């Protein structure tokens, strides 16, 4: 099964980072967040990726084309020009990097990937968020209900610490709890090819008309994920993910090195 990843947005709220590179190439622990996302999928043996490019897409093309050549150690014979690789662990990935236009909206990018998804069921996510979603369970849930689309519903991390107050006395302080009620789109989807009929063209936002119409038609189901999920929309969130990675206790690291 192919995994489609949208990696073409501007990332304007990460302008400090994205002036020079696309948002999916902003690094966490020395690796682009796109790499972390792909490692998550490959940990469940989903290794066939179709990546929708847009803003600074050449940056992603170069990284992926160089990755297999430069990963690990190199022995270079300067006299002969021979280069020998060793100590590398290149992932077993197949990638198609597709230009989908610099200003195309999310729905339009998805529709532009249709020819590369071969009218088959596929997974979809964005190139700017990490999670420990159980992808096998997600797929099994999708197969069980027979609808066109499954969306992973998550509880967003609270931005500020939670206070329980009795008068002026703080009786409980909890740092960054999960919100106790309300679910949001966590952007880990399983989709049937008929969803392309719900997308009009390049100007279509996937999160608006297509998902609204799928829900109205009874074709959109929610897989509830109660564990770790974090997007990277701001510098603050990048710093948070960096600190988690540095701690060594990384919830989204579901793969083996």
Secondary structure blueprint with pairings:
Layout: E1 2-7, H1 15-18, E2 27-28, E3 31-32, H2 33-42, E4 48-53, H3 57-70, E5 73-76, E6 83-86, E7 94-99, H4 106-112, H5 114-117, E8 122-126, E9 129-131, H6 135-145, E10 149-154, E11 162-166, E12 169-174, E13 184-191, H7 209-216, E14 220-225, E15 229-231, H8 235-247
Parallel strand pairs: 1-4, 1-8, 4-7, 10-14
Antiparallel strand pairs: 2-3, 5-6, 8-13, 9-15, 10-13, 11-12
Strands of the widest sheet, in order across it, are 7-4-1-8-13-10-14
CATH superfamily: Spore Coat Polysaccharide Biosynthesis Protein SpsA, Chain A
Task: Indicate the CATH class.
Answer: Alpha Beta
List the secondary-structure elements in sequence, H or E. Answer: EHEEHEHEEEHHEEHEEEEHEEH
Explain how this protein is built.
- This protein has helices at residues 15-18, 33-42, 57-70, 106-112, 114-117, 135-145, 209-216, 235-247, and strands spanning 2-7, 27-28, 31-32, 48-53, 73-76, 83-86, 94-99, 122-126, 129-131, 149-154, 162-166, 169-174, 184-191, 220-225, 229-231.
- The protein is 28% helix and 28% strand.
- It is an alpha/beta fold and 257 residues long.
- A 7-stranded mixed beta sheet has the order 7-4-1-8-13-10-14, sandwiched between helices.
- The mean pLDDT is 89.
- The two termini are 23 Å apart.
Comma- or semicolon-separated keywords:
Spore Coat Polysaccharide Biosynthesis Protein SpsA, Chain A; single chain; 257 residues; 8 helices; 7-stranded mixed beta sheet; alpha/beta; globular; 28% helix
Short précis:
This protein has about 260 residues and is α/β, with parallel strands linked by helices. The protein contains eight helices and 15 strands.
């Amino acid at each position: 099964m192919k995994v489609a990843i949208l990696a073409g947005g501007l990332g304007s709220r990460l302008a400090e980072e994205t002036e020079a590179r696309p948002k999916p190439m902003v690094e966490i622990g020395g690796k682009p967040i796109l790499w972390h996302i792909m490692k998550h999928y490959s940990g469940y043996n989903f290794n066939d990726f179709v990546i929708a490019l847009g803003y600074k897409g050449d940056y992603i093309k170069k990284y992926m084309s160089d990755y297999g050549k430069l990963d690990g150690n190199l022995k270079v014979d300067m006299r002969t020009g021979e280069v020998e690789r060793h100590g590398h662990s290149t992932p077993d990935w197949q990638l198609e990097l597709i230009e989908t236009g610099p200003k195309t909206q999310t729905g339009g990018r998805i529709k532009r990937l249709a020819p590369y998804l071969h009218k088959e069921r596929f997974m979809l996510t964005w190139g700017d968020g990490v999670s420990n979603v159980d992808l096998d369970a997600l797929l099994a849930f999708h197969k069980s209900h027979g609808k066109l689309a499954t969306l992973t519903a998550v509880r967003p991390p609270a931005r500020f610490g939670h206070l329980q107050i009795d008068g002026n006395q703080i009786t409980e302080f909890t740092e960054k709890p999960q919100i106790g009620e309300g679910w949001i789109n966590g952007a880990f989807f399983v989709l049937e090819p008929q969803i392309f009929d719900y997308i009009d063209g390049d100007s279509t936002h996937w999160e608006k008309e297509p998902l609204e119409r799928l829900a109205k038609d009874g074709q959109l189901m929610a897989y509830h994920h109660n564990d770790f999920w974090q997007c990277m929309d701001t510098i603050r969130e990048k710093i948070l993910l960096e600190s988690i990675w540095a701690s060594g206790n990384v919830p989204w690291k579901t793969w083996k090195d």
